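We store chain and fold; example below:
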Amino acid sequence: MTQTDAQKSKGQKTRRLMLVRYGKMGLLGWIEHNEPEVPKTPTKVVIKTTRGLELGEVGGSFCYKSGQFKSSPEQVTTYYNPSDPKEHPIVDGGTFVRFATEEDLREAEHLEASAQEEAKTCMKFVREMNLPMKIIEAEHLFGGERIIVYFSSGGRVDFRDLVRRLAKEYQTRIELRQVGSRDEARLISDFESCGQECCCRRFLKILDPVNMRMAKLQKATLDPSKISGHCGRLKCCLRYEDEIYKILKEQLPRKNSWVQTPKGPGRIFDTQLLTQQVVVQLDENDRETFSVKEVSPLAGPPEGVTWHLFRPPIPGQPPQQQGRPGDRGRSSGPQNRPGQNQRRDRRDRPPRHEDRRNGRNAYEPEPPVPMDSDIPVEESELRPQQAEDPNQDPLVQDVPEFNEPIGNEGDLQEDNPGFSDDGSESSQDKDQP
């Protein structure tokens, strides 16, 4: 859109709009005003929205008297709506009430402190009612018409009783809103490891996916605790420079590819993406750094260059020949290694699954011995068998009766010399100290 597109024809009223950010979630809305001067960013203003009376901050203006603008409603809508238009749509239709005064700012601070107490009270009710939900934050609107409680949960929660209890406690309208992990970070996060305020809390609205490939391309650490944000996912800032890194990577030759340098042909040993430089292996022990503009690609190793086929010699041993170009320290075959037998031919071996089935490297199971076999059995393995009484219950063992004497009287006194037949102590024990 150009300057002429913003100008209206004669007789058509020119709207004066300003973009205002308001609420804990950082909602955006086009607010119409009739002020003679365009409010500057970031001016505090009091506005009227569908939620109620709120305190917001001017983010931009549109349609000056001269017809110029910083950002049009179409541009803002095109940028904002792809993020999540259903949950947080851009508002068009709010009204400007007044510029915020010192009294309004003090009232906003008082409501912020009361919102923290309201969140604690809500947490207390949740614990008493044993609801599977986590209270994140509470928002008390500037006009006092509504209290919005943000919570997270793994599934759907029936919180109707909680809403009735909160409405009875504060005598106002209660609204509970379930949010995800990223919206939770917008509400409670403050600063990141870079020292700046979290992007999703300050300005970011389009939350495109971020994958681990972006971190690998930028050679960032792969430790999840260092590249994850407050939401537990990969940081959104990894996506900011991804396109630039892709363009810079396409301009670099691949590793182990052959290039022509001012000092002769060589093979790419390493690349430096940001500085657009390459480290080239010119000889066995010679490496040089060149700019990408100083090298040109080659189809393969030039004729007469053989240093890449040999491994550096080991002191006291003859040099060993390398295999095909690109092999890292592997010899071309076992025939070049003295004292090493040829590799065994494994074509005659049975398939590996048959070895597992037959129990390779395990003891063979002993075959079962039939009952009528003539194998001699040791006497220790034989157990005496007693004749069974057909009239006796097999579960009842041969237990002597209670009135049957176990032994004779002499045996009893000999086994228990300290007691008599009637159970009293003997005189022999009384005489002893």
Summary: Residues 102-129 form the longest helix (28 residues).
